[in-house]
User: What shape does this take?
Amino acid sequence: MRIVIDRKEKSWLLNGRLKCLWLAFAIAVKVFLVILSDPALGEAALPQISLNPDYTFPTKDTPSGVEVNSASLVENASAWNGRTIAFKGEAIGEAMMRRKMAWIHLNDDAYMWKNIEEGAQLGGYNSGHAIWVSADLAMKIRYFGDFKHEGDVVKVVGTFNAACRQHGGDMDIHASTLDIVRVGHPVHDVFKTTRAIIALFLLAAAFALHRVHTIIRRRHAF
Amino acid sequence: MIVRPRWADFKVIGLYTGKVIVGVGLLMVIPLATSLLFREWNPAIDFLLGIGACLAFGLGLEILCQTSRDMAWGHGLVVASFSWFMATILGAIPHYLSGHFNSYLDAMFDVMSGYTTTGLYLLQDLDHVSHGFNMWRHVLTFAGGQGIIVIALTFLFQGTAGAYKIYVGEGKDERLLPNVIQTTRAIWLVSLAYLMVGSSFLWIAGMSLGQGPVRGFLHAVWIFMSSWSTGGFAPQSYNSIYYHSLLYEVITVPIFVIGSFNFALHWAVWTGEKREIYRNIETISFFTTVAIAMLLAMAGLMKLNVYPDIIALFRKMFYQVVSAHTTTGLGTIYSRTFVRQWGTLAMLGIILAMAIGASACSTGGGFKGIRMGIIFKGLIQDVRRLISPESARIVEKWHHISTRLLDDATVRMAMLIVLSYAGIYALGTVAGVYYGYDLVEAMFDAVSAGSNSGLSCGVVSPTMPTLMKVVYLFEMWAGRLEFMSLFALAGYLVALFRGR
Amino acid sequence: MVAAAPRCGGEGVVYKRQVGFELQNSGGFYRYLIGMALEVSATVVLMGVGLLISIFGFYLWK
Assistant: This one.
C-alpha cells in the first residue's frame, strides 16, 4: 500500500513541477520588470563613478587640443569623452590598414624614448591608446616599436571617445592630424658572451648527464 | 601514527619530478627555434641556458633517484605539486634573463601564471619583447593548459598504474580511454586539431584586418594558444583591444568556450555521443551561470549608461563575461576601465563569473561547473526530502557522460572543494585589503588569481607588495591543482618532521 | 578524490572505442569534424543568449 502512495506522490510532483516552474518564471519576469521600470529604486542604489583627482581631468577652462596622458584618459574617461585632445606616444606593433583608415597604437610609458635593451629603466607596464587615423597619415610612420626597433614618437590631435559608437564601444582617439616628433631607429642588442659561455657549459653538463643516465638505465634494467 | 617518508619514497618522487623537468626543458626548444628563425641572438642564448639548466637538473635528479618502484597515491600527488613548483623556478630562467622583470619572484609569478593558465603578468614593456620570448610565454599557457604532467606522460612515461595517479594529481581525473597514456594522447588529438583549424582562421582574419603575413601568423598562433588554454596572455600589452575587430572576437570566443569544455565531453561528442553536448550537467550549469552573470553585468552597465548602443553593450559585456566565466582573461577593455567605467555592480557580475569558472578536466579554473550543478541538485534533493513524507525515497540523477545517482559523498566532496576555493579567494582579498586596496578591487584580483582567470582591475602590478605577489602565486598554484596535491605535499612535509 | 565524479571500479567514463591517432577510416575523421561543428554551434547559441540579454536590458532600461 505504502509503495502505491509513494508512486502517486512522486508523479504528482512531476506534473505539478512543470506548472510550478512556469509560474515561478512568470513571477520572476514580472518582478524584474517592476524593478527595472521603477526609476526611484534604480537611481538611489548606485552613485555615479566620481572623478579621480590624482589624474588630470578637464574643467570648463581647459582649452581644446590640450595634451593628456593615457592614464588620465582611462581614469577620467567620462570627463574627457568627446573632447579634442593631443596625445603623444611611441608607435608600436604595426599600422593596421583598413581601406582608407588605419589603426595605430601609441604608447606614452617609460619606454617611449628608449628600449630596455638600450638601457631604459624598468618603469611599470606599457600604457597607451589606440588611434583611428587616415591611412595616408599613418603611412608617415617609418618605424614601429618592437624587439628590434624603437618606434617613431608621434603626436596626434583628435577627439577622444570613452565608448566609441563606430567601433563597438572601444576607447579610442579619432585623430585628424599626425606629426612625427622623433624618428625611431633599429635597436642594436649587444651579444652577451658570458651568458653564451655559461649556456654552453650547462648544455655540455646536460649531455654528459644524459650519457650517464643511459648507462645507468641500461644497467638497472638488467 | 604518521609514517615518515623513507629514502625510497623520495627516490620515486625525485625520479618522476626529474622526468617532468626534462619535459619542460625540451619544451623550451620551440621558443629557441623561433628566436633563431628571427635572428634574435640574445633571447636564443637565454633559452639555451634555460634548456641546459632544466636538462641538467632533471637528468641529475633521475640519475640520483633511479628506482623501479611504481608510484602510490601519495607519491603521485606530491610529484604533481612538487614538479609544478620546480618547473616554475627553472622555467623562469629565460624570463629573468630577458631583463623585463624587477626580480626573480616576478619572473616566477609570470611562469606560474602561464602554467596555471591564469594570465596575470608582472612583465614590463611587453610591447618590446622578442618573438622567441613571446612564443615561450604562450607555449607555457598551452603546455600548462594541457598540464605539464600530461605532456610528460605523453612522451616520457611508460603506461604504468602509477601514471594515472600523477595524472589525477594535476587536477584531472577523467578517463577518456582505458589507458591513461592513451587518454593523454586523445587530449592532444583534440587540442592539436583545434590548433590547426583555429590558428588558420585567426591568421586569415588577421591578414584581412591589416596585419602583415608574418606578424599575422605569429599573433594567430599565440592568440589561439592563449584562448584554447583559457590562458589570457596576449602578444601586445593591449590584449584583445589591439585587434579592434568584431571578427577576431567572434573567432576567439568559440575557441575559449570550447577550450573550457571538459575533455571527456569533447571525446564523447567526437566519438558519436552527440546528445552529450546538451545533456551534460556542466554544459547546463555553464549556460545558466553565464546568463546570470551577464544579467548582473548588464544591469551594472545600463545603470551607469556606459555604452551608447546595443552592439557596443553586447560586444563588451559578452566578451568580458564569457572571458571571465571560462577563466580565460582576454579582455577588450583596459584593466582600469573595470573600476573607472564599469562600476561595482558589473564588477560583481564578473567576479561571480570568474569564481564559478569553467568545466572540470579542462584548461579552465574556478569552482568548476560540475560542482555548481552537483550542489544545486543536492539542494533540490534536500528540499524535496524535507517536504516529502519520511518513508519516501528521494533520488536525484545527474548526467555527466553517463547518468548517475547523486549520493551524499559526491555532494560533500563538491562542497569541500568549493569551500577551499572560497578560502583562497578570501585569503587573497584579505591580503589586498590589508595593503590598502579597495574591497571590490582586491576581491576582483584575488578571485581572478584563485580561479586562474587573469582579468585584472589594476591591483596586480610590478609595484605590488611582495607578500601579495607570494599570496597570488600560491593562489594560482592551489587553484590549478585543486588542493589535493597541495594537501598531500603539506602532509608529506609534516610527516617528515613528525613521523616515525 | 579530486573532482566530485564518482568512479565505481574504473568504469564511469571509460569508452570501449578505438584508440587515438590512427584515423583508420574516414568515418572517424568525419565524426571528429561533426563533433567540432557541434561544439561551435553550442557557442553560437551562447552568443545568441548574450545578444538576447543585451537587447532585453537595453530596451527595458531606456
Observations:
- Chain B has a mean pLDDT of 89.
- The two ends of chain B are 7 Å apart (CA to CA).
- Residues 1-173 of chain B form one domain.
